[in-house]
Amino acid sequence: MRRPFWIFLVVITAGYLAFWFLLIAATAGFSTPQAWLETLVKPEIRYAAGLSVLTCTAAAALALLFAVPIGYLMARREFPGKTWIDAALDIPIVLPPMVVGICLLIFFQTPLGRHIEVMLPFTYTIAGVVLAQFVVAAAFAIRTMRGTFDHLSPRPEQVALTLGATDFQAFRHVALRAARRGMLAAFCISWARSLGEFGPILVFAGATRLKTEVLPTTVWLELSVGNLDSAVAVSLAMIALAILVLVLVRTTGERV
Amino acid sequence: MITLEAISWTAPGAAFQLREVSVEIPANSYAVLMGTTGCGKTTLLELICGLRQPTTGKIWLEGQDVTRWEPRRRGIGYLPQDLALFPETRVRDQIRFSLKMRGQRDGEDSVQELISELGIGHLLDRFPEALSGGEKQRVALARALAARPRVLLLDEPLSALDETTRSTAAELLRTLQERHRLTVLHVTHSAAEAFTLGQVRLRMDQGRVGPA
């Protein structure tokens, strides 16, 4: 009686994976390796790839810088309004991407935003690309870090306090050390999320060739001029990068 | 000496309470606190450590009111039930942790003595995952004693050990208490442990502590 049930579950899983495999295989089979290579050596594509790697790394590092302390606070302390703060931290995940871009654009037109722009211009600049990627990626990093600290017992940190450590020392020498794999996972997830970010970048940083163009922008620009071969080649490069990140996360032992 | 003066504590949501607990444990004695699971023994240890704040009452250690002191200033060695060895940290770094935190450079000799006293010299390069239950306990004891505490709090230290290791570990605890002149509060639900080790025997029941 048990066997048909498990076979049914295996069929559903296999069907779902087959669907994704067919999508990627169809994309890969759309054009030739020769066409991919021709696309990937174009200066504007190489610029976009380089800028993507640079901005994703900066955004992920920045996201981790915020995610670690926020995740630790949310996992370790109880305080009034915690449920609401927890929900607020998820806002970037549930907001439509274009709305995030519009929010950023409007914020930098306010007096405070303009004041910030005098010191460091964000709108339609590379810094703006990083900020747009960071806004969404940080929410995923925070969720990952909170999950990591939730799964780590607070006991070793408490023992560290009795051994002469301050709260900060217990955090730095015990909690952070134990959370290393989670931090790597949070960085990789933020990086992958930043790589796929398109809406906020388009609205806030623009899609100027050889200036603020990143890989998702390239796909959109190439599609908009009917250059399907290039769009496919860049898409495949992004799929390869995403799979690489996924493998990296899995080998660190953390689930995405 | 550990003195608890009318200590009360209420869990969030008032699900559990400690009610005006008053206890005096003489200096350099081995006290055992018995009680059923969930009666508040661990909470009492956490209050003494400073990991929780009592709602009322005072905690005195060696004649000093430490009720509002941070855990790091209390001079307490604490072994929780799961021993809480630091993950991803080699045994040698676990034992030297308190010296590092306090910036002490003169404690190396006493650390070496502890290592040989507890027979853990061959474990120094290992991580906690590669230790047996008995080895973990000896490392946790070395880590606690390296901080030169006045008071040692043990939360069911023998419960996870097998029959043979348990009697050796009990002997070790008693020897360490005498040699380091410690005031020990050992929490257990085993009457046998209490009668083997305890010079002072206490029982906790419904949030109150009295003689066993």
Describe the overall structure:
- The complex is a heterodimer of chains A (256) and B (212).
- Chain A folds into two domains: 1-30; 33-251, MetI-like (MetI-like fold, Orthogonal Bundle).
- Chain A is 80% helix and 0% strand.
- In chain A, helix 11 (180-196) packs antiparallel against helix 14 (228-251).
- Chain A contains 14 helices and no strands.
- Chain A has helices at 2-30, 33-40, 43-76, 82-89, 91-94, 97-107, 111-119, 126-151, 155-162, 167-178, 180-196, 199-204, 215-224, 228-251.
- With 212 residues, chain B is of the alpha/beta class.
- Chain B has two domains: 2-75 and 149-211, P-loop containing nucleotide triphosphate hydrolases (Rossmann fold), CATH 3.40.50; 89-148.
- Helices cover 32% and strands 26% of the residues of chain B.
- In chain B, helix 6 links the parallel strand 7 and strand 8 (183-188).
- The longest helix of chain B has 17 residues, at 163-179.
- Chain B is globular and about 45 Å long.
- The model of chain B has no long low-confidence stretch (mean pLDDT 92).
- The interface between A and B is medium-sized, with 20 and 28 residues.
How is the largest sheet of chain B built, in terms of strand order?
Answer: 6-7-8-3-9-10
Report helical residue fraction of chain B: 25-40%
How would you state the average pLDDT of chain A, rounded?
A: 93
Assembly classification: heterodimer
Q: Determine Rg of chain A (CA atoms, Å).
A: 21 Å
Provide the number of structural domains of chain A: 2
Largest sheet of chain B: 6 strands, mixed
Structural class given helices, strands, pairing of chain B?
alpha/beta
CATH architecture of the largest domain in chain A: Orthogonal Bundle
Strands of chain A, count: 0
- If classified by CATH, what would the architecture of the largest domain in chain B be? 3-Layer(aba) Sandwich
Q: Largest inter-chain interface?
A: A-B, 20 and 28 residues
Low-confidence blocks of residues of chain A: none
Runs of chain B in which pLDDT lies below 50 for 5 or more consecutive residues are none
**Backbone shape of chain A:** globular
Order of helices and strands of chain A: HHHHHHHHHHHHHH
Mean pLDDT of chain B: 92
